[in-house]
Amino acid sequence: MKYLANAKFAFLFLLISAITVSGCTVKYVADYDASLKEEIVQVAKKIDLFWGELLDTAASERKYDKFKDRYNQIEADIRVLVMKNEIRALNKESKKQANIALDLWIEDKNLHKDNDTFSDFEANIHRKQFTRVFTAMAKGEEAKNISASSASDNAKGDKQ
């Protein structure tokens, strides 16, 4: 009789545990932010436009002073992306990517400032580099949406 009571208690405990655990999810990444993804795309567009305009300028006229205001505007935009990624919990990879973009931008700004020009070769390489970095950032944000959708679909399936 005592054995039967213990077995019922154990079964009830396992049943309650299974129900509780199946309803819990562990999050390892930040929530998807559609407005941040759009902002990433817009900053990428500004950077691509910057390199396009620089390449359309004759090499002899690519003085730093002509581009310094644009460098500062875009640097501020990237710093906002860094800040937005830093304040979000569970956002290590996106924060790292935004900091990489900022570091690369500052390096390019300083290179232009020091040399007071930019060759077509360098500009094309740097343009492609930023395209890769910002594409990765946008894909990373979109992956959070896919992850959230999958988790949501799984939760709906568990409740049905």
Structural features:
160 residues, Four Helix Bundle (Hemerythrin (Met), subunit A)
Describe this structure as you would to a colleague:
With 160 residues, the chain is an all-alpha fold. It has a single domain, classed as Up-down Bundle (Four Helix Bundle (Hemerythrin (Met), subunit A)), CATH 1.20.120. α2 runs antiparallel to α3.
Estimate the strand proportion. under 5%
Uncertain residue segments: none
Structural class: mainly alpha
Number of β-strand runs: 0
Q: Which percent bin holds the helix content?
A: over 70%
The pLDDT mean sits at 85
Oligomer status: single chain
**Shape assignment:** rod-shaped
- Biggest sheet character: none
User: Could you give the order of the helices and strands?
Assistant: HHHHH
Number of domains: 1
In brief:
This protein is an all-alpha fold and 160 residues long. It has one domain (28-159): Four Helix Bundle (Hemerythrin (Met), subunit A) (Up-down Bundle).
Helix and strand topology:
Elements: H1 2-22, H2 34-56, H3 64-86, H4 92-115, H5 120-159
Helix pairs in contact: 2-3, 2-5, 3-4, 4-5
